[in-house]
Design goal:
364 residues, alpha/beta, DNA Methylphosphotriester Repair Domain, Arc Repressor Mutant, subunit A, 3 domains, four-stranded mixed sheet, globular, disordered N terminus
Length: 364
């Protein structure tokens, strides 16, 4: 079956998770599950042990899974399709043998392949080129290294980039690849800020910040896609007053001068429940932490612990909405989209700031 390149509207993620548990074939070729804890993506019919709900993401095409840094499952083999051209399996097998290889068109020629033929075959079958798949595998490995505590420069080299400008070029490609939904619509603007924890991507309109994420977050391509869909806007590189303001506030934060963020936030894309959770996150003072259960009790419903966790994970405004200040009930660090090593760094950094009398007062 040929991978659909055009995206379709997925049912809600609870429905897809139920389909995953039931190993339902209703969404075969239309939806895939990405598992945060393993870094793999699967068909919903995969026989492997099922992940917890909070560790899952659902996307509607293989290309988005790969671009988000996930690698294909070896059990359900989502890249395999009956009746496809042999060149696809040959090259994917070669990539499996050496996922860190930096493939070029010259490499394909040396192995006896015509680059144009390979490009068309992969686009028809999987919605992306072989060279794109190889690059995504390297980027995914770099993201996993960063999550495990690797230095940013080491991850850059492993991903095939010899300087930070290489990552910036990848950022430019990501923005230019954004789908166009309609003509004559408002633009959102994106730029890239360097921080001690690696580059961050920010997206804003003229007055409000819509997204702020670490560049290697696995779900960033899907978040950009979802943001455009919800706002009916396109994303282009550029600067706005909101981007200038958040860049200055981030600089003050990382220098330990201020934990105050006053950049207006665009939160309309979240549900009423998510916005309530985000409001309570912004109410956690700098240097302090809360457990998911604490937030659920504050909302007068202790049964909402998992829902609070999902709302925490749906936050697209890292640091500004401080989801890193939420920990496990036993005091352990829990999942963080930017990587636990970053979460630990942020909490230590804020612990040093607290004696100076700096408090996160939230954004009005």
């Amino acid at each position: 079956m040929v991978e659909r390149v055009m995206l379709f509207d997925l049912p809600n993620e609870d429905t897809l998770y139920d389909a995953l548990i039931a190993r339902s074939s209703n969404y075969e070729g239309l939806a895939y599950v990405c598992v945060k804890t393993t870094g793999i993506f699967c068909r919903l019919t995969c026989p492997a042990r099922k992940p917890k709900r909070e560790n899952t993401l659902f996307y509607d095409c293989i290309a988005t899974c790969m671009q988000s840094g996930f690698r294909p499952c070896r059990r359900c083999k989502p890249l395999e399709q009956p009746g496809r051209e042999p060149v696809i399996d040959e090259l994917l097998n070669a990539l499996d043998r050496d996922p860190a290889a930096r493939w070029t068109e010259d490499d394909l020629v040396r192995k006896g392949y015509d680059p144009s033929t390979v490009r068309r075959a992969f686009k028809r079958s999987l919605g992306m080129t072989f060279l794109d798949i190889a690059r995504c595998r390297r980027l995914g490995e770099a993201a996993r290294q960063l999550a495990a505590g690797a230095r940013v420069i080491d991850a850059q080299f492993e991903a095939g980039y010899e300087s930070a400008s290489g990552f910036r070029a990848a950022f430019q490609r990501l923005i230019r690849a954004a789908p166009v939904l309609s003509q004559n619509r408002e633009l959102l603007f994106a730029d890239w800020f360097d921080t001690p924890l690696g580059p961050m991507v920010a997206v804003a309109d003229q007055t409000h910040l819509h997204l702020l994420e670490f560049h290697d977050r696995k779900g960033l391509p899907a978040e950009l896609d979802s943001l455009q869909r919800k706002t009916r806007s396109a994303v282009a590189t550029g600067r706005t007053k909101a981007l200038d303001q958040i860049e200055a506030e981030l600089a003050a934060y990382f220098e330990g001068r201020s934990a105050m963020f006053r950049t207006p936030l665009a939160l309309a894309g979240g549900t009423a429940f998510e916005r309530e959770v985000w409001k309570r996150l912004m109410g956690i003072p700098v240097g302090e932490t809360r457990a998911y259960g604490d937030l659920a009790r504050e909302m007068e419903n202790p049964q909402l612990v998992r829902a609070v966790g999902r709302a925490n994970g749906a936050n697209r405004l890292s640091i500004v909405i401080p989801c890193h200040r939420v920990i496990g009930a036993d005091g352990s660090l829990t999942g963080y989209g930017g990587g636990l090593w970053r979460k630990q760094w942020l909490l230590r950094h804020e612990g040093k700031m607290r004696p100076k009398g700096l408090f996160m007062e939230g954004v009005q």
